[in-house]
Amino acid sequence: MTSLVPLIVMLPLLGAAVTLVFGRNPRLQMLVTAATLAAVSIIAAVLLVAVDAADTPFAVSVGGWPVPFGIVLYVDRLAALLVLVSSIVLLAVLLFSIGQGAADGVEETPISIFNPTYLILAAGIFDAFIAGDLFNLYVGFEILLVASYVLITLGSTESRIRTGAVYIVVSLVSSILFLAAIAMIYGAVGTVNMAQVAERIAQLPPETQLVLHLMLVIAFGIKAAIFPVSFWLPDSYPTAPAPVTAVFAGLLTKVGVYALIRTETQLFVSSDINTLLLIVALATLVVGVLGAVAQAELKRILSFTLVSHVGYMIFGLAIATENAIGATVYYIVHHIVVQTTLFLAVGLIERKAGSTSILRVSGLMKAAPLLAVLYFVPAINLGGLPPFSGFIGKVALFEAAAQVGTPLMIVLILGGILTSLLTLYALMRAWNLAFWREGDDLAEIEGRVGYLGNAPAADVQTEIRRIPAIMTVATAGMVAVTIALTVFAGPLYALCDRIGAGLLQPITLQQIDEEAG
């Protein structure tokens, strides 16, 4: 079974090479990309079932080097689950992009560039999830970031180049901090293998542990877009093509959150910054959702809610109990799927209405009733209405916090409830204006909503375009997955509970050596 582990990263890299060779054959490129992601999905599903049944992680030492000197690929329940969910999301967005490319040509997503870059991005995401040492985690980050630099500037429009430059600078700062932290950790404990670092880090003075801990948290916090280092995201994501924005929103910030989970549950168990993380979580929740309420453009609304809901994940991580970690993992899975689905639905709205401004779009309920459903279902899910997965995840987090019962936990619960209500308000206000409203005069609407008339991109207008069936099918498929998270919430949440219990009992270097051997 361990022989399948390296294929998670190798297949996308090989697929990228093949798509480059067949750069003049777009159909073959798309077929190779889809087949590669489907194969990774199957492998991840097999590994998830196997690792859950075996109740022990799988580890592979690349090249046969002895642990901890070689590169170790490490698959536990968490890594396998996230690889599975990510590959499904990547495959759905690929189908969406195929439809967009077929309808628009190469203007928005040049196929010869998009497919190999997309697979390289997938390889970086998967590598980050299964990395067993800090340097390989850094390599995974850099692979996905280099690919994201290309994807975020596709089309080379002025706005994409401008916001892409900000994204690149912020990402480079984060990478430099991460690399500096790795160098300091290696200098302090003589290794970058996570299991070995966890064993040795407790022997360092508390002040040294705290410095190393904070450096990693800041580096990963930038990637996860937590407050106050989330300023770059709302301006960067909305300008990219719809498929790219959907993938970035669904997956890239979650890689940062995943790295924070590994840091807090494995590396720095004896260095407690949970109070600081709780304060950061509260600020991320509230500032993000207030930003969403102040927007008049759908992609900016979703970008701010993305920032806000990362706060729920930091909240659960900072509670630091088995129940809380399990709830956090469930919420990560929920948010990856729902946030991606919403961005795909907004991509369809933009094509149908020629705008993503809620001041300009109207009458879509009659013009596109199916599109109304494709937006409404994930919107109320993200807002946390019962019985959907967003409600289940939030309630689980609140219950875990209530069990701790400190005053700060109570404040976080209230902040989480407020954030959920304001998220629902922002998304349903957009629903009311874009779908229910029947062609009111723009000046009248701006008078009613007041401040929204001066919001960024409130007057954005694009070209009305045909919606190919495959784009609708891909979005509908993702909506079905969001519903499945609710229908199968029992077994999925039980799996997440086992993940939470396992993370708080981290694997030792001896166990990794035995598995890799």
Automatic annotation (TrEMBL):
Signal peptide per UniProt: none
Record-given protein name: Cation antiporter NADH dehydrogenase subunit
Cellular localization per UniProt: Cell membrane; Membrane
Topology of this chain in the membrane: Multi-pass membrane protein
Membrane-spanning residues: 6-23, 30-51, 71-99, 111-131, 137-154, 166-190, 210-233, 240-261, 273-294, 370-388, 408-427, 469-494
The family this protein is said to belong to: Belongs to the CPA3 antiporters (TC 2.A.63) subunit D family.
Residues in NADH:quinone oxidoreductase/Mrp antiporter transmembrane domain copies: 131-417
Keywords: Cell membrane, Membrane, Transmembrane, Transmembrane helix
InterPro entries tied to this protein: CPA3_Na-H_Antiporter_D (IPR050586), NADH_UbQ_OxRdtase (IPR003918), ND/Mrp_TM (IPR001750)
Main location: membrane
Name of a matching Pfam family: Proton_antipo_M
Source organism: Microbacterium arabinogalactanolyticum
